[in-house]
Design goal:
By secondary structure, this protein is mainly α. 68% of the residues lie in helices and 0% in strands.
Length: 209
């Protein structure tokens, strides 16, 4: 564990309410996103998150630090969510949903953006991704952040979760694979598809602006 995690655990074990409040504030949005993979109703997902925090409080003295605190926390969340989903008749694991999405979806980049195979430059970009030469103020604007958020929210649940954990929360690929029980290949494909779609949405946005 990092020194910061050690201090956090010490505070939790000593019953410091402020430490727990900061933890809840930091992780609840991401916990809720992951819970929504397993239970579709937001109210039920919120109950799953609440139960997760209760499990954390009950089990914090048994946490041995073999994994990071964040990994431990989200494993509790996925176990609680799976149990709740099982009671509601939804027992499909995230990894199966990921494979299903991967198999059924169209290419993440439209084929007509590449030169045809019969062309001299077959397989190369015919319409390459746009280069955004924009003022920093615009790249950091609240409107752009809102557009990015909307683009992420419009993604299939599996892609939305992976890109949120990787690019919004800053998780490593290994952490995402461990918590969501994904293979490295599935994680990479989901992230690529999600990023491609978000970029396409932003290309449309900048093109119209």
């Amino acid at each position: 564990m990092s020194p910061a995690e050690e201090r956090l655990l010490r505070s939790l074990r000593e019953g410091e309410e402020q430490a727990f409040a900061e933890l809840v504030s930091t992780f609840t949005p991401a916990l809720l996103r992951v819970a929504r993979i397993y239970v579709r109703d937001r109210a039920v997902a919120e109950e799953v998150v609440q139960e997760t925090w209760l499990s954390v409080l009950r089990g914090i003295d048994r946490f041995e630090g073999r994994a990071s605190f964040r990994t431990w926390l989200f494993r509790i969340l996925t176990n609680v969510a799976k149990t709740r989903a099982g009671r509601e008749g939804r027992t499909v694991p995230f990894s199966a949903l990921a494979r299903q999405t991967e198999d059924e979806e169209s290419p993440s980049v439209a084929p007509d953006r590449f030169s045809p195979a019969t062309d001299r430059w077959g397989g190369h970009w015919a319409s390459p991704p746009s280069q955004w030469d924009l003022p920093e103020s615009r790249l950091l604007s609240s409107e752009l952040r809102m557009r990015i958020g909307e683009a992420i929210e419009s993604l299939p649940a599996t892609q939305r979760t992976v890109i949120s954990l990787r690019d919004v929360e800053g998780w490593s690929a290994e952490e995402v694979c461990n918590v969501l029980e994904l293979s490295e290949t599935n994680q990479r494909v989901l992230l690529h598809r999600a990023r491609s779609k978000v970029r396409r949405e932003l290309e449309d946005y900048f093109g119209k602006a």
